[in-house]
Structures are given as structure tokens and as C-alpha cells.
Design brief:
2 domains, two-stranded antiparallel sheet
Length: 349
Amino acid sequence: MAYDPPWKPGRDAAVGAAVFGSRAVRTAGRWALVPARTVAGAPIVKPALGRARQGLAANGRAVQASGRRRVDDLALTEVELAIDRVLAGPVTEAIGRSLADHEVPQRIAAEFLARTDVQALLAEVLESQATADITDRVLASPQFQHAIEDVASSPAVRDAVAAQTRSLVDDVVDEIRGVAERLDDSVQAKLRGWLRRGTASPGTAAAPTKYGGLSARAVALVLDVGLADLAAITVAGGLWLVASVVGGLRPEWLVAVLVAVGWAFVVDAYLVAFWTMSGQTPGMRLLHLRVVGPDGDPPGLGRSLVRLVGLIIAIAVLFVGLLPVLVDRRRRGLHDMLASTTVESTDQA
């Protein structure tokens, strides 16, 4: 076998030439870039290059972020479309039916109530300072005040208040009328029993109409006198203003006589006017009473004046003239007998 030396002169020379060439090229490149590096390191050029690099970096980051946003927006749009397709399909109804069939809301509410002291929670919320502050701000806000004013001044609220007021007044009057009628029926039945005059039930031939008793008529008369007093006070106040212009009225006894006469005139005119016009004074209307003559119509002016005189006489003799109302079959007093009138109890005012 021939001897093969560990080195080969031709190959090693080629390798050495290649290494020398690469080093020479690298050295030449460095020397060629020396002017560019010198210019780049100059005080004027270096900041400009730094700003250029920052701008390029910012543009690169913006492009990357925009790309990520586009990807995110695209993914979000796809998710929204998928959710919309799911909700538009039969899945929603199926979920609702499943929740209802398995009573999921009731079970959740029951579990919440079982594990939570609701009363304590509500008490804590209501007693908290935050709730008090919110309530004070709401009550003090102009919007709340305007809302309250709008509600209070609305026609619906006014009508409701008026209806409630009328209902309350009607209930009170009906209760008073019922008590008065029961008292009158009871007293008259006992008195007629003691006198052995028998009783007549309303609606029979002996008593075709139910007549107003003494208690109901007394309540109506008290109400009417009160209303007449208000009218008399109004008239007296007007006269006093007129008299004050000339220094007032003298002497005092004359003033007292004029006041008494004026009061009597107003009350008498009040009763006679209402009896003649409709057979009912406002007090009698509230108690469902009506004065009628022999023909069933309201009494005329003459009959009303006779009835007024009889009423004054009946009251003046210690109310003795009113006692026949307790025993008479048609519940007539002295004034009714003199004027041939009766006081009927009506079903409607």
C-alpha cells in the first residue's frame, strides 16, 4: 500500500486562498462603510436617524396592532353572528321550556330565600345611610316636586278624591239615617203597643208609604239650622261692613234686635223656600226625607207658611207639638196636621 501523507498541498492552498479572500473582502467592506458610519455618527445626522428609526418602529407596531384588531373584530363578528343564529333558532324556546319544566326560577328563588335572611337584608338596606341620602336627594329634587304637583293636579286624582269624599259622606249619612230609622221604628212600636193602637207595617194598605220618624227629622232640622246660620252670618257680615262705613249702629239693644230678627227671617225664609220649591231642604235631602201635601206634591207657599207657624208653636211649647210624631200612623206633628202635610221617607235623595 502506498503512503498517503496527512496533508495535501493543493487542497490546503485553495482553502488558504479562500480564507484570505474573505478576510480581504470583509476588511474592504469595513473601510468602505467608514464614511457612512462617520456621517451617521455626526451630531446633526444621528438624531434624525434616531427619529427615523422610532417612526419606523411606531409604524410597525401600529401595523401589528391594526392587524390584531382586525383579527379580533373579525373573530367578534363571527361570534356575534353565531350567537344570533343560535338565538334565532329553536334553541331559545327549548331552553325556556326546559327551565319552566324543571322549575329552575322557582328553585333558584327558593334556594335564595332559604339561604338568605331577606327581612334582615331589606332592613339593612333601608336603614343604611346611602338609602337615606338617596331618598333625601330624590325628595328634594325639582323633578320629584314637579311630578308630585302634576299628579296632585291631574283630573284623575281630583276625581278620585272627590269620589272618595262623596263615598265617605254617603256612608256616614246612610249610617246616621239607618240608626235614626231603627230608633224611630222601635220607639213607635213600643208606644203604640202601650197605647194598644196596633202597628202598621210599611207597604200595607194601612201604611202605603214609609214616613220619616222623629229622630231622622230632628237630625235634618239640625243640619238645616246650621246651614241657615251660615247664611245669616254671611248676611250679617255684609251688613256690618256697610254699617262700618257710617261709624256702626247704635244703640246696642237695637243691634241685638236687628240681629235676632234677621236671623229668624233668614232661617224661616230658608225653610219655606226649600219646602215650596222641592219639598226638601238640604238636610232633609241627606236624610232622604220629603215634605208633600195632600196631593203628593210639594206644598205651596201658603201651606208652607202654615207649616212654619205650626213648627214654631210645636217647638215653643217645650217640643210637645212634636210628640204626635211618635204615635201617629203617618208620623205627623202639630205643624203637619195644621198644614195637611206629611214627611215621607224616600229610597232616593
